Fold these 2 entries.
Entry 1:
Amino acid sequence: MVNHPTKKIFQFKTVVLSIVLLLNLSLFAQDAALSADALAGEALFKANCTSCHAMNSKQLGPALQGVHTRRSDEWLVKWIRNNEALRASGDKDAIAIFNEYGGAAMNNFENLTEAQVGTIITYFKEWTPPAPKAVVTDGAPQEVNFYSQTTLYILLFLIVVLTILLLVLRKTKNSLKQSVSEIEDEKEEESAPSAFKTKFEYYKKRTNPTIFKMAVGSIVLGGLAAYGFYFGVTEIGVQQGYAPEQPIKYSHKLHAGELGIDCKYCHSTVDKSKQASVPSVNTCMNCHKGVQLRDKYNGEISPEIKKIYAAMDYDPDKAAGEQYGNNPKPIRWIRIHNLPDHAFFNHSMHTSAGVSCQTCHGPIQEMEVVQQYSTLQMGWCINCHRERNIDVENNPYYEKLHAKIKAEKDDKNSSYAKYFTKDGKIDIKPANNGALECSKCHY
Amino acid sequence: MNKLTYIILSFSIVALSSCWLKSSGDNTGIEYAPDMYYSKGYEPMTQFSDTAKYRYNPYYMTMREPVKGTVANGQLDYQYPFDNTAEGYAASASLVAPSDLTKNEQLNGERLYLIYCSVCHGEKGGNDGKVSTKQTVLKPAWANYQDPYIKNLPIGNIYHVLTYGKNNMGSYAYALTPRERWAVADYVKRLSAMDENGNIPAVASTTTMPIILNDSLTQSK
């Protein structure tokens, strides 16, 4: 192989580049690595301090990023080991920070030696904020709704254009056909028409033209009416698939799916009351007091979490005791599942009977935007009441019913004896237990 | 009008009805008798925009506070003697669980623990729930429930924390009735007594009265 001059230059460049890169890498490695002291400090920090402090955000105590520039090392050691004594000694800084946090005293850490506290301070000094991740513009991936309004308009426009096209084509075809037939008329020979067409022409000739028109019209109208009936029965007042955009882009997929939070954590009244209840904001705050996703948004609070704080009138950056303002605004969630007034439904009755949330609400834990999964029509209710088995044996809710069935097992006259299958198991459906009574749901 | 017009007309009706009148996205679809769907009376979880008309619920709240100075039937134990202060916390150490917690209530404590607590504190109290491992949540100073701190913590203090919350933990009084809170506190104590093999002490109570999950069934609507 001949060493081409350009190739040589190229090789030279790569060598220089790789050296520069290596240098850079080693420099970065030096930056990221902590000294042994700082590592020991980090361990102590995580064991003792993180229940109230974080490095880059204010929690129960102040953010500790750059605290060594604000206070001297000696002061920090004194404060961490015994802040009470420091305050008692009349130190102005100590009293000021105590008052800023609403008199919430920090624990004394006299179990830590001065050297140990020193390592923690070394950790503060060497700590660097984690590299910001790529900016995410939105919490949830943008849902592309196929049935959006614009798509509808485009579809309608297409329908109109295509029909016009169809008409034009038909006309040209007809005129062409006419001219062709004019030519072929001379030959007086026609190809045989289709069987349907001959029959159609035959009946057209045989019947009164008005009656014939009426018959064809009624067939067409009948078809339309059948479609209308089907549409009315399955669509009017049925909101299956309704998935409105909520004021906060709350993702059930993230919370219930990936984080595995139980439905009842938020919908806590579901086994106590008629309604499953949309949680009040304090339920969100149980986690989101801490979870602010600042590292995803370059140090800012996530815009969706900001909406929770706005509803609560809560400012995490203010001093303790002043974080909650006086102007809370409830979040106006949009109700999705809606039963008409004339039908009664009670959530607690169904959850105590052992019906899972997903039976009616579908795979909620996979939904980015919640949509109505079931039709909520009466036939849908009745089907389940007819087909579902009641687990009388293991559910304490049915203890009385179970006892009654067991007691009357061998009684020939008992109405309960028939619920025993041949292999001695109990097979009873809600329908057998009065769930088909009209007045159970309509009163 | 010729045949074609009729055909196009009927097709467009079908197309229109299947797009516009169907429910999807922000569209509720066509409704029959909307008066029946959007009740004139106040319904839970239905929020009105007309403040003048619904002046009794100006904040469109879905959950309501009890009327001031009243106690609902059978809910006397909702009154809690201690305040949400350091003194209240210290004083709550004297409280003990009601002696008549039934076996089912104690078992229910485990179920409730798994719903409300395990997301952060983990299924066995190891502070390794999915939320606390996947998200940046402040962790407690102690490693797990088997830590001597929790082992020696009076059950009254646990009840107090469940009622008011502490540090970054919120209050769970919104979801748990007083007896349920005692059952959860009881389960926390049993978890803290777990041995190295992961055996949790059995429930102490032998009373097998069924729990009443739902008072509203007997009073329905």
Entry 2:
Amino acid sequence: MTNAVEIKNLSYTYNTINALDDITLKIKKSTITGIIGADGSGKTTLLRNITGLLLPKGGKIITLDLNPSKNKEKLNKVLGYMPQKFGLYEELSVRENLELYANLKEIPKNDRKEMFEKLYNFTKLNPFKDRLAGKLSGGMKQKLALGCALLGQPDLLVLDEPSVGVDPISRKELMKMVHELSTNKMTTVWSTSYMDEAYGFDICVVLNKGKIIYCGTPYNLSQTQNGFEDKVIELMGGYKEKPSLIAKDFELSENYPDCPVKAQNLEKKYGDFYAVKNNTFCIKKGEIFGLLGPNGAGKSTSFKMLCGLIKPSSGNAYIMGEDIVKNPSKARSHIGYMAQKFSLYGELDVMGNLVFFASIYGLSGRKKEEEIKKMTEVFELQPYLKQNAKELSLGFKQRLSLACAIMHQPAVLFLDEPTSGVDPIARKEFWSHIKGLSEKGVTVMVTTHFMDEAHYCNRISLFYAGETIAIDTPEGLIKKANAKNMEEAFSNLIMETKENEHTWRAY
Amino acid sequence: MSILGALIKKEFFQIIRDPSSIMIAFVMPLMLLVIYMYGVNLDTSKIKLGLKFEDNNPELSALMHSFNTSKYVRASVYDNRDEMYKDLTKGKINGFVVIPNDFTKNILNKKTADVQIVTDGSEVNLSNYIKSYPVSIIRQWFSESAYKYLGKKPLIEAQIRYRYNQDINSHHFILPGSLAITMTLIGMLLTTLVIAREWERGTMEALLSTHVRKIDIVLSKYIPYFVLGMISMVFNVFVCIFIFKIPFRGNFFVLLFVCSLFLFSALGIGLFISSNFKDQFLASQSALSIGFLPSLLLSGLTFPINSMPQILQELTKIIPTRYFVSFIQSEFLAGTIWQIVFINSIFLLILGILSAFIVYKNLKTRVE
């Protein structure tokens, strides 16, 4: 057989929502197939059906000549699967995780040593063998999880958004790992929301609302990466630049100081390790200030300090003139904060979350109803209002989080990776809201791992190992690094710093 | 290493590195034992009693003396009835006794002499004591007083002896019983979290895509927590016997054997609860409400089973703690009685096998 996976008229419904709607698909052996698509378009559901973790409600699947509904145990022996939440044991060290999965896949003892060495080298986890998986940075976790999935050289490797929230350098390394560690006979199915990644696959499958709207080589769609992204967006229904509804009737009621966000020698120390070191900056009114850097550089720690969620070891910061050390709650009242980790109430439905956050931010009566209605409309939450937040797909979780963060019209907006796991159209819409709000005078500080998004920022601070290594406009940074684009500038500047340091550090 | 071995090793690493399971296994039982030892006491302390003697016969001073020196009563003498009622309402005294002014006169005339006892009925147990203590004090006084030849001798007199627990010290049966409760809590709390945790962190999804069989997952959850539970049990028994000095008249091997059967069934119930949830919080809440509370209330430790309504009595039959309480109390106080050991073991074994079977059937191997 030449096909690794054959799907015929597959459908899957979930709480009356058609997650997969009559899908027919063949995945060729020895290829890397990318599954891309809008948020909630059924990517994860499709992958789970292929691996037999979900049973189809209609239609037929044959994975590697086996029926996943009946022969799951046989299928597991030739399958490598990396779930969205990685599946690592946080209390176990890197080595122990690898050994556990090697045992669970019954890999003979003799083959292990060589295989482990190869994986350690590829993941660059050699110095961290004995570190607990829970203490690794996001990028490292992902590499380790991929390593675990690759153990035993499976015939089919299934990766569910392995690169969400991973910095560009680590993403390249992940891709390289798959390319070089996969054998000729291995088939890879990889779901992603990064278009640059999808462009590098042999075949890409575009899903929309549970249906396949394109299946073929990315090259056939467009000859350039940017063109490819535009084409995919067009297939998904197109994006029209329109003024942000949220920004339209946004009004700032507060008096503005020159620097709504000001940090002075901000520092956070854990033991003798600096998470953030001597950071000073001032973000001007209406500015979009981007914080870029690899995973574990200290971006989230900076956010949490500025929000008054953790206390700085030394130094201070001011939000709208309020001291974050002395008056953290007063400073916080000016902020809308979207955390990196999903921090809404999973047990409440979407409507419940909206109502709750509107209420704790002090909205009431007609104003509250209007805001909730607006958010529902803008972020297309209508079909999901009755669904529990924890059951939402990744992209919709992000939409809901952003909605809850801006509902009370804050003067300062802190967004920690708002667009991670969000589809390309929604990403453009997110940014149109952010831009719109900044034009109205809202001060925004944002992190992202999408280098194309860096261009939306007025100024960028490049963060590495707890320190600012460069601060400039996007164009300025590219020039400084002698690079063609932002992505190159990012890796050039980081590598330069790394080499200067001589010692390679994880954080 | 086999798959099962690898899973068990992993589970042990998680236990050692996650302080909460160590807390559940060792710190929590110690706390509970201390509470049961020093906090829970079913023996009444001295009751506060008001006294009013309207009869001024000098013979009664001996009666007054008996009240004042009794182990069970703290008496205060009043002159005024109204004041006594007020103090009873305020809770200063639990009840009072009035000796009327014709008391000795009636005895001398061989008529029935009345005594009035008023108690605070809002505390039923206590008012029972208040009813009986003054009566026995007055009887005692009467049999030793100058009037003793005036009354008739009772035809029957009971000689009471408390076997197995000579000094009716309630600790001697509460503490072994509380061991059963503690072990229930440990058995259920430890295991309710572990399957739910795998789902919550997404590791179950990864596990289910490896060569792991269902039976491996089930056994890898039983074995480590069984070992941990047994260690905790030995620790608790040690604390009871050597630190709290509870007399132990049974056999350690029998105790360990029945204990292991009990733990097997308690873990089974915990795992059954856990296998139904994909969320640790919900799992632990339901462990408390549908696992632990019924065990506490229906095990027969605090409330006797045969005074429960029929339906509840039937319900207690599926609660492993019931059998263990009955066994451990007799093992501690009366020594090994093979009949009791045998019958309880059989029931625990049946419950254990039944719950293990349900856990196996109930464990989901797919995401939905």
